[in-house]
Amino acid sequence: MNETDDDIPDLLRRAEAGEAAARDELFVRFRPRLRQMVRLRLNRLLQGRVDESDVVQESALEAARHFDRYLAERPLPFYLWLRQIAGRKLIEIHRRHLGARQRGAAQEVSLHRGPLPAADSASLAAQLLGKLTSPSEAATRAETCLRIQEVLNAMDPIDREMLALRHFEQMTNAEVAQILEIGESAASSRYVRALRRLKEELQRIPGLLLE
Fold it and tell me: Which of 5, 86, 112, 204 has the most CB atoms within 10 Å of its CB?
């Protein structure tokens, strides 16, 4: 669900009035979106070592501690605020586990007024392959996944982020525009161009059929 849901302002109003159920619903509502964001941006070296749900839970606990301040200031729409906190948690986890390998293994991009781990191209490639029609043999799928990853790595980092935000995190154009701090028209145009280029490159991969 997106921030445009009609009941979000009402839940925020009720939470501000002290209604615990409304506060709890706000945090529960966005857990699937946060988990997807973490899944995309958790470095592949840490997958299996760091639980996505734990990252989301830690982020929710921190958000709960600062929730009253959020209500007083409203610096961002509620989900983008939660996502910002989860992004900081991911940065901490990457630095703690990867140490000196952080620069090369878990690059960061400067988005939404602060850094966030870049969407992992291996995770993006795996999810893209799952959405496309391709041969079922394991070896062929592995090779195709690597080819898709090469395509993604060759893209402009911001274009790759645009695809991650819109296509995989399922953000609205308005949310993406606010995160990138650009106009909605510019965000929409850039997404269309990035998606067109991705499709053109994917069509060159043998055996890969776009839906």
Answer: 86
Residue 131: CB atoms within 10 Å: 11
CA–CA separation, 160 and 165 (whole Å):
9
Give the number of other Cβ atoms within 10 Å of residue 6's Cβ.
Answer: 6
Tens place of pLDDT for every residue, the chain, 211 residues?
444 467 999 999 999 999 999 999 999 999 999 999 998 888 888 888 899 999 999 999 999 999 999 999 999 999 999 999 999 999 999 888 887 554 444 454 444 445 677 787 888 888 887 766 555 666 677 888 888 899 999 998 888 889 999 988 989 999 999 888 889 999 999 999 999 999 898 888 876 655 5
What is 1-106's CATH number? Answer: 1.10.1740.10
Whole-structure pTM value: 0.80
Element (H, E) at 115: strand 114-117
Distance between CA atoms of residues 160 and 120, nearest Å: 10
Residues of the chain with CATH 1.10.1740.10: 1-106
